[in-house]
Design a protein that fits this description.
Oligomer: single chain
InterPro entries: Lethal2_giant (IPR000664), LLGL2 (IPR013577), V_SNARE_CC (IPR042855), WD40/YVTN_repeat-like_dom_sf (IPR015943), WD40_repeat_dom_sf (IPR036322), WD40_rpt (IPR001680)
Number of strands: 60
GO molecular function: GTPase activator activity; myosin II binding; syntaxin binding
Strand order of the largest sheet: 1-52-51-50-49
GO cellular component, one term: plasma membrane
Structural class: mainly beta
Family: Belongs to the WD repeat L(2)GL family.
Helix content: 10-25%
Protein name: Syntaxin-binding protein 5-like
Length: about 1100
C-alpha cells in the first residue's frame, strides 16, 4: 500500500493555486469582470488547400465542390467565402465521393471499406448513415442521377447495391463469375468502373481491371455483351447517346467501342504515342488514368484525359490533354494530377453535355480551366489555397486592427495580380454567406521558407490574400563560388523567415531570417528606386574566459567576459557610430551569411526596405540564430537577441545603439554559476557551417526535434542552476513607458528583456526630442537591473495601469515616407509627434502599474514601482508552455496559454485565476508549436497541416454566434428540366428508357442481403431529418413530391382494397341472391301446398 504523504499533497495544492501577496502600497484589489463562463473553446473554420487530396465530386445544380483527403477529411467549397470542413472519425482515406445531385446529400467511400451518407442541409454537415463492409474491399461507386440506388464495386469483382435512403443492402448482387464468359477461368480483377447507359437505365456497363468490359442487363440478370482488350483498364466514359463508350488503358491508349459490336474497338488512339511509319503499333506510353467524353450540340466532342505521356518525356511535368476535333492541347500542371472533373451545362447524362470548364485537382493546387475560350485560360482562384505556396515557417494574428489597414494592403496587393485569367466568373458558386455581425478587422501574417511574407484578411471567419512581400529581393541570389562563406552555407532555404514583428498603427514591419539577418520595412503607397540598400553589420560573440563561483550558490559574484566591442559598419553616408567590422580582419572570418544586393532596387508600392541588419561570422564561427525580435515605432528602435546577447538598432539614424552579451546585462549581480567554455582554436570559415534549421523562437526547444515528435522532456526547473551549456538566450522583449527602477516616481521609456533562464531585466531608454534632434542626437540605453525571476523561459510580458487596463506600447501614426511635397510639408512630417498611450499627466504617479510576466512554467504579476510580486500562479509542472499571450477580451484582460501537452488555458489578469483549461490538441509536430498564436477578442490559429490554417475561438460569445456566421452549403434550386425526347423519338421509342429499380432491387423481388456482408451504423439523424431540414421552393417541392408519392401509394392501396371489396361485394351479392331465391322458392312452395290443404 502506497504511503500517504500530506506534505506532498499540500505542496501540490499550493502550487496549483495562485498565491496572493499584497505589498504595503498595493493593498487595493482590482475588480475583475472576466469570469470562467465567458470562455468556451471550439473550432471555427479551416482555410487553405486540403492536405493530401485523394478524391473529388461536383454537384452541377447546387454548384458545390467536395474534396476528400487521405486522412479522412472532407472539404466543401461553394462561392468564395463559403467553405466547410468535416472529418470521418476513422481517419481512413476518402477514395470516392458522389453527390445526390440537388438533394443536399453526399456519399463518401473510404479505404476502410465503409460508405457514409452526409447531410449537407445544415451548416455543419453530419453523417446520417454508415455502412461497413466486412468481407469485401470497396473499389468503385456509382450513383445514377435521380436514383436512390448506389452501385458498389469491390476488389473481388462483385457489385452490391445499396438503398441510400435506408442505407441497407439489396439482395440483388452481380457476381463476377456471372458477368464474364463461362469459358474464362481467370479472375477479371477488381471493378474499376460502373455506369448505366445514358439512354437505357436497365443496362449497366462494368469495367474490370484486367481489360474486360461487360454490358449487364439488370432485368434479365445476365451479360448482353462483353468487350475484351489486352491492356488493363483505368476508366470508362459514355457518349451521351448511349451507342458508344471510350476506355483508357495502362499502355497509354484510348479505345472507342460500339455497344452492339463485340469484336474489336472501332477506334484505337494513342494521344501521345509516336506513330511508326511502317504501320506497326505505336510505342507504349504511360497509363491514361482517367478519360471523359463530352459532347456539344455544335462542333466536335471533347475527349479529356490525364496521363498517357510518352516514357521518353523524362522530367516533363504532369499534363491534362484536351482533344477537340483535330486539335489536341496539352496543358502542363505544376503538380501531379489527383483527379479531374468536366463541368457541363446539364446534369442529365442523356443530353448534349456542353462542357464549359474542367476542375483539376492536383496534389497541392486546384486549377479550373475555361474550355469555352481559345487557349483554355484558367480561372483566377478566389479561395485561399496558396498558403503553402512556400512552406509556412511562422505566423502572427492581429484582431481589431486599424480600419484603414486592410484597404491599404489590398490596394497595393491588387497590383501584384497576374494577368491572362479567364474573364468569366468562378464556376463553383453555390451556397450563401453567413449572417454574422462580427465586424472588426482581422489580419493574419504568414512567413515562408522562400523569404516571402503574406498578409491575409481574416475578418468574419473568411480568408483572402491581401499582399505578398518578397524579402529575398534584398539579397543577391547569384552567390559566386569564390565567396567562401556563401558556398559553405549550403542550406535549402537561406531566406526563410524566422520571426516577425509588426506595428499595425505605424505599419512598420520587421522580419528576422534564419541566416541571422533582420530587415526593417516601411509602408509606402508610392513606387521608389533605392540606389543602395542600407546595411548594418553586427558582430555578436559570447565568450567567458574566467569564472568565479559565488559563495553559497547565490548571486553577487563577478565574471570577466571577453565580448567583442559592439560593431557596426553602415554602408551609408555619415560616420559610423561604432568601429567597423568589415572584412579588414586578418582572420578573414568576419562576413555576412547572405550578400545584400549592390545594384539599385526598384520597390513597388507596399512594403519597402529601409534597413538591413546582418550578423557576421566571427573568428570563423557562424552567427547564432535570432531567437527574439521587437520594434517600437514611437522610439524608432528595433531590438533582437540570440544565445549570445542582444542588439538595439536605431533605424532612424541607421546605427547600432547597444550590443551587449547576456552576462553584461546582469553586471555584477549575476545570480548564475556559469561554466566557462573550453578553449578552442580559431577556426576558419571553410570548416564551419551555419545551421539554418527552423526552431521555436527560444533556445530551450532544439531537443524537441530529436524525440520522434514527443514533447516530453527532462529539464531542471531550478532557476539557480544552468546546464552544461553556459549560454543564456534572449527569449522575449517588451517596450513600455513605465517605472524603470524600484521606487521611481516618473514614467520613462523602457525595454524589458526576458531570457531562457526565466530572468526579466530592464533597460532604461533616453530618447532625443522629436523632430530634427531625433535625427542627430544619440539614443542612450542603460541597464537598470533585474525585475523578477520565474521558472522556465520567459514567453510574454505586458503592463497594466492602476485600473487593470492594458498599456499598449506607444506608437507613431503612419505617414507616407516618400513624400514629394515641398520642404515645409517634409518638415511637418518629420516633426510628427508619436502617440503615447501611457497614463495621462493628470494621473497620480504614485498609483501603481502592474507587470504581467509569463514563462514556460508559471506567471507572476509585479506591482510597480515597488517591484513586489502580488500574484503568482504555477501553470504547469509536468509540461511547458509553447505560446502565451496577454489578450484583450470584450469582458476584460486574460493570459492565454497553449501547453505542450495539448491544453489551452486562460488566466484572469491581474489576479491569475484559472478561467479555462481544455485538453484540446495533443501536440504531434513542431509545425503546430511554431505557428500557434492567440490574439484579442478570443481568437487563435495554428497550422493544422502543411497546407491548412485552423482557426479556433475561446470566446463564449463567438461560439454562440458561430452558427449564424457560418455559410450555408445547400440552397433551394430547382432541378433543370429533363431533355425533350422529341416527337419521333417518343413515337418510335428512341428516347431514354427508364427502369423501375425499386421493383428490381427491393426486398420483395431480390430478397434480403447477407447480414455478414456489411454492418449498418445509423448516424445522429435519419432521412426524415434530412427531408425536414429542407426549406424554400425545393424543400416544398421535395415535400410535395414525397407527399404525392405517399398519396399515390395510398391511392394504389385504396384502389386494390376497393377492387377487393367490390369483388367481395360481387361474391356476397351472388351468394345473397342465391339465398334469397332459395328462401323465396321455399316459402312459395310452402304457401302453395298450404293453400291446397
Amino acid at each position: 500500500m502506497k504511503k500517504f504523504n500530506i506534505r506532498k499533497v499540500l505542496k501540490e495544492v499550493s502550487s496549483s493555486t495562485p498565491s496572493v501577496q499584497v505589498g504595503p502600497q498595493e493593498n487595493h484589489l482590482i475588480r475583475e469582470t472576466i469570469q470562467s463562463d465567458h470562455f468556451q473553446l471550439c473550432k471555427t473554420v479551416r482555410h487553405g488547400f486540403p492536405y493530401q487530396p485523394s478524391s473529388m465530386a461536383f454537384d452541377p445544380v447546387q454548384k458545390i465542390l467536395a474534396i476528400g483527403t487521405q486522412s479522412g477529411a472532407l472539404r466543401l467549397f461553394g462561392r468564395p467565402g463559403v467553405e466547410c470542413y468535416c472529418q470521418h472519425e476513422s481517419g481512413a482515406a476518402v477514395i470516392q465521393l458522389q453527390f445526390l445531385i440537388n438533394e443536399g446529400a453526399l456519399v463518401s467511400a473510404l479505404a476502410d471499406d465503409s460508405v457514409h451518407l452526409w447531410n449537407l442541409r445544415q451548416k455543419r454537415p453530419a453523417i446520417l448513415h454508415s455502412l461497413k463492409f466486412n468481407k469485401e474491399r470497396i473499389t468503385f461507386c456509382h450513383l445514377p442521377f435521380q436514383s436512390k440506388w448506389l452501385y458498389i464495386g469491390t476488389e473481388r469483382g462483385n457489385i452490391h447495391i445499396v438503398n441510400v435512403e435506408s442505407f441497407t443492402l439489396s439482395g440483388y448482387v452481380i457476381m463476377w463469375n456471372k458477368a464474364i464468359e463461362l469459358s474464362s477461368k481467370a479472375h477479371p480483377g477488381p471493378v474499376v468502373h460502373i455506369s448505366d447507359n445514358p439512354m437505357d437505365e436497365g443496362k449497366l456497363i462494368i469495367g474490370f481491371e484486367s481489360g474486360i468490359v461487360v454490358l449487364w442487363d439488370l432485368k434479365s440478370k445476365k451479360a448482353d455483351y462483353r468487350y475484351t482488350y489486352d491492356e488493363a483498364i483505368h476508366s470508362v466514359a459514355w457518349h451521351h447517346e448511349g451507342k458508344q463508350f471510350i476506355c483508357s488503358h495502362s499502355d497509354g491508349t484510348l479505345t472507342i467501342w460500339n455497344v452492339r459490336g463485340q469484336g474489336k474497338p472501332i477506334q484505337t488512339i494513342t494521344p501521345h504515342g509516336k506513330q511508326p511509319k511502317d504501320g506497326k503499333k505505336p510505342e507504349p506510353c504511360k497509363p491514361i488514368l482517367k478519360v471523359e467524353y463530352k459532347t456539344t450540340r455544335i462542333g466536335e466532342p471533347f475527349i479529356i484525359l490525364s496521363g498517357g505521356l510518352s516514357y521518353d518525356t523524362v522530367g516533363r511535368r504532369p499534363c491534362l490533354t484536351v482533344m477537340h476535333g483535330k486539335s489536341t492541347a496539352v496543358l502542363e500542371m505544376d503538380y501531379p494530377i489527383v483527379d479531374f472533373l468536366t463541368l457541363c451545362e446539364t446534369p442529365y447524362p442523356n443530353d448534349f453535355q456542353e462542357p464549359y470548364a474542367v476542375v483539376v485537382l492536383l496534389e497541392k493546387d486546384l486549377v479550373v480551366i475555361d474550355l469555352a475560350q481559345n487557349g483554355y485560360p484558367i480561372f483566377e482562384n478566389p479561395y485561399p489555397l496558396t498558403i503553402h505556396e512556400s512552406p509556412v515557417t511562422c505566423c502572427e494574428y492581429f484582431a481589431d486592427c486599424p480600419v484603414d489597414l486592410i484597404p491599404a494592403l489590398y490596394s497595393v496587393g491588387s497590383r501584384q495580380k497576374r494577368q491572362g485569367y479567364s474573364k468569366k466568373e468562378w464556376p463553383i458558386s453555390g451556397g450563401n454567406w453567413g449572417q454574422g455581425t462580427q465586424s472588426y478587422p482581422e489580419i493574419i501574417i504568414t512567413g515562408h521558407a522562400d523569404g516571402t511574407v503574406k498578409f491575409w484578411d481574416a475578418s468574419a471567419i473568411m480568408l483572402q490574400v491581401l499582399y505578398k512581400l518578397k524579402t529575398a529581393k534584398v539579397f543577391d541570389r547569384n552567390r559566386s563560388k569564390e565567396d567562401k562563406g556563401s558556398t559553405e552555407v549550403s542550406d535549402e532555404d537561406p531566406f526563410a523567415i524566422q520571426i516577425m514583428a509588426w506595428c499595425p498603427e505605424s505599419r512598420m514591419l520587421c522580419v528576422a531570417g534564419v541566416s541571422a539577418n533582420v530587415i526593417i520595412y516601411r509602408f509606402s503607397k508610392l513606387e521608389v528606386t533605392t540606389e543602395v540598400v542600407q546595411l548594418l553589420e553586427v558582430r555578436m560573440q559570447y565568450e567567458l574566459n574566467d569564472m568565479e563561483s559565488p559563495e553559497g550558490g547565490g548571486g553577487g559574484g563577478e565574471q570577466t567576459s571577453a565580448l567583442p566591442t559592439p560593431g557596426a559598419s553602415p554602408q551609408t553616408s555619415g560616420p559610423p557610430s561604432h568601429p567597423s567590422t568589415s572584412s579588414n580582419n586578418s582572420d578573414g572570418g568576419n562576413m555576412p551569411c547572405l550578400k545584400v544586393r549592390s545594384t539599385p532596387l526598384k520597390q513597388s508600392p507596399g512594403y519597402q526596405v529601409d534597413l538591413v541588419v546582418q550578423l557576421v561570422w566571427v573568428s570563423g564561427e557562424p552567427p547564432q540564430q535570432i531567437t527574439s525580435l521587437a520594434l517600437n515605432s514611437s522610439y524608432g528602435l528595433v531590438v533582437f537577441g540570440n544565445s549570445n546577447g542582444l542588439a538595439v538598432v536605431d533605424y532612424v539614424q541607421k546605427t547600432v545603439v547597444l550590443n551587449l552579451g547576456t552576462v553584461e546585462l546582469y553586471g555584477s549581480n549575476d545570480p548564475y554559476q556559469r561554466q566557462p567554455r573550453s578553449p578552442r582554436k580559431a577556426r576558419q570559415p571553410s570548416g564551419a557551417k551555419m545551421s539554418r534549421k527552423l526552431s521555436l523562437p527560444t533556445e530551450l526547444k532544439p531537443d524537441l526535434d530529436h524525440r520522434d515528435n514527443s514533447f516530453s522532456r527532462s529539464r531542471s526547473s531550478s532557476v539557480t542552476s544552468i546546464d552544461k551549456e553556459a549560454r543564456e538566450a534572449i527569449s522575449s522583449f517588451h517596450f513600455s513607458e513605465t517605472f524603470a527602477r524600484k521606487g521611481d516616481s516618473s514614467l520613462t521609456p523602457c525595454l524589458y528583456v526576458g531570457t531562457t533562464l526565466g530572468t526579466v531585466l530592464a533597460l532604461g531608454l533616453t530618447l532625443p526630442p522629436a523632430g530634427e534632434q531625433r535625427q542627430l542626437q544619440p539614443v542612450i540605453i542603460s541597464p537598470t537591473g533585474m525585475l523578477v525571476r520565474l521558472k522556465g523561459s520567459i514567453m510574454r510580458m505586458a503592463f497594466l495601469d492602476s485600473t487593470g487596463s492594458l498599456l499598449p506600447p506607444a506608437y507613431e501614426p503612419w505617414y507616407e515616407p516618400n513624400v514629394t511635397a515641398d520642404g515645409e510639408e517634409r518638415e511637418k512630417v518629420r516633426k510628427r509627434r508619436p502617440v503615447s498611450v501611457s497614463p495621462s499627466t493628470s494621473q497620480d504617479l504614485s498609483e501603481s502599474q502592474y507587470a504581467v510576466v509569463c514563462s514556460e512554467k508559471q506567471a507572476k504579476v509585479m506591482a510597480l514601482p515597488s517591484q513586489t510580486c502580488i500574484y503568482k500562479h504555477s501553470i504547469t509542472e509536468t509540461s511547458f508552455i509553447l505560446r502565451a499571450d496577454v489578450v484583450q477580451m470584450s469582458q476584460g484582460m486574460c493570459v492565454a496559454c497553449f501547453c505542450a501537452n495539448g491544453h489551452i488555458m486562460t488566466l484572469s489578469v491581474p489576479g491569475l485565476r484559472p478561467l479555462m483549461d481544455v485538453n484540446y490538441l495533443p501536440l504531434t509536430d513542431m509545425r503546430i508549436a511554431r505557428t500557434f498564436c492567440f490574439t484579442n477578442l478570443g481568437q487563435a490559429m495554428y497550422l493544422c497541416s502543411p497546407t491548412e490554417i485552423q482557426r479556433i475561438t475561446y470566446s463564449q460569445d463567438i461560439c454562440e454566434n458561430l452558427q449564424e456566421m457560418l455559410g450555408e452549403l445547400f440552397t433551394p434550386v430547382e432541378t433543370p428540366e429533363a431533355p425533350n425526347r422529341g416527337f419521333f423519338k417518343g413515337l418510335f421509342g428512341g428516347g431514354a428508357q427508364s427502369l423501375d429499380r425499386e421493383e428490381l432491387f427491393g426486398e420483395t423481388a431480390s430478397g434480403k442481403a447477407s447480414r455478414s456482408l456489411a454492418q449498418h451504423i445509423p448516424g445522429p439523424g435519419g432521412l426524415e431529418g434530412m427531408k425536414g431540414a429542407a426549406s424554400g421552393v425545393v424543400g416544398d417541392l421535395a415535400r410535395a413530391r414525397i407527399a404525392l408519392d405517399e398519396r399515390g401509394q395510398k391511392l394504389g392501396e385504396l384502389d386494390e382494397r376497393t377492387a377487393a371489396m367490390m369483388a367481395s361485394a360481387d361474391s356476397f351479392s351472388k351468394h345473397a341472391h342465391e339465398v334469397t331465391e332459395n328462401i323465396y322458392y321455399k316459402y312459395k312452395y310452402d304457401y302453395y301446398y298450404k293453400s291446397k290443404i
